[in-house]
Amino acid sequence: MDGKRKKTISITSGKGGVGKSSIVSNMAYLLDRMNEVTYIVDADLALGNIDIMFGIVPRYNIKDFIDGKRDLKEIVSRGPNGIKIIPATSGGYELSNLSDSEKNVFLSGLRSIPDYDFIIIDTQAGLSSNVIYFNSICEEMFLIVTPDPASLTDSYAVIKVLNKKTGRKNFNVIVNMVKDEAEGLDVYKKLLSVTDRFLRVYIEFYGYIPLDRNVADATKRQKLWTKEYPLTAATLALRDICLRLLRS
Fold first, then answer.
1. How far apart are CA 16 and CA 64, in angstroms?
2. CA distance 191 to 178
3. What span, in angstroms and rounded, lies between the C-alpha atoms of 196 and 188?
4. DSSP secondary-structure letter at 55?
């Protein structure tokens, strides 16, 4: 027994443009800074962008592993500070809907990863069969929501479908792009009012990340905002979320 926590979590969203992959990348960086061995799996298998977030060009990707051309350890790319990234393809649609055998290969590969504290699976937005699958194999799921009414509507749809298809009843909500905690709680309560009325699930407000111009600046430069701006408001908010994750 190596004492490792070995927790696998998914980060998902109902729609694109909510900052999901940015949160994944920066969460992994902060966890690594907290001495947590962290892997990111870019599970947007056809249009991956985690490598772009880190400004790296992977030699191999998850398709090479699923096709049996490379071992899992061969496709792992290194990000800053030792973060380990399992990159997706970009523009290759062959893995848009994994077959049962491909899912088995992926899952066995995931289980073969030796020592880690966290595996963070960054799913694509929406409700494809891949999204449902990746969320089903994770111990915890985090849903990224913004104040945009479309984000709220699509987030409710994600919760409803995942509850029906996977039986998941517990969902963690992170509200992004708000001015303060009060607005974050307001967005969460709007979602809660609908889920409480129509579904038998439990959604938990896990934290919020404020709108922060330093996030846009760092992202534009393909830099991590948590690394470039360690004391900016968004970094401090995400650090609180990571600390809570360590306590759970």
1. 26
2. 15
3. 12
4. T
Q: Which residue matches tokens 């920066």?
A: 26
SS3 28: helix
The pair of three-digit structure tokens given for residue 225, joined into one six-digit string? 């905002």
- pLDDT tens profile 59-114: 999 999 999 999 999 999 998 778 999 999 866 666 778 999 999 999 999 999 98
CB 191 within 8 A of CB 157: no
Please give the single-letter amino acid code of residue 76.
V
Question: Nearest-CA neighbor of 122 among 106, 141, 109?
Answer: 141
Structure tokens at 91: 């523009």
The overall longest dimension of the chain from CA atoms, in Å, is: 50
The residue assigned the tokens 């290969």 is 105
**pLDDT tens, position by position, 185-218:** 999 999 999 999 999 999 999 999 999 999 999 9
Which CATH number fits the domain that encloses residue 53? 3.40.50.300
Identify the burial level of 192 via C-beta atoms within 10 angstroms of its C-beta, where 0-12 means exposed, 13-18 middle and 19 or more buried: middle
Q: In which region does residue 177 sit, left (phi positive, over 0), alpha (psi from -120 to 50) or beta (all else)?
A: left
User: Is 2 part of a structural domain of the chain?
Assistant: no
Residue 157 lies in a domain: yes
pLDDT digits (tens, 9 = 90+) for 151-170: 999 999 999 999 999 999 99
Where does residue 174 rank: exposed (0-12), middle (13-18), buried (19+ CB within 10 A)? buried
Q: How many domains does the chain have?
A: 1
Please check whether residue 93 lies inside any domain of the structure.
yes
Q: Which of the two residues, 163 and 56, has the higher pLDDT score?
A: 163
Residue 81 sits in which domain range?
A: 7-247
Q: Is residue 45 part of a domain?
A: yes
Provide the H-helix boundaries in the chain. 20-33, 50-54, 62-66, 72-75, 100-111, 129-136, 149-166, 181-198, 213-220, 225-228, 233-247
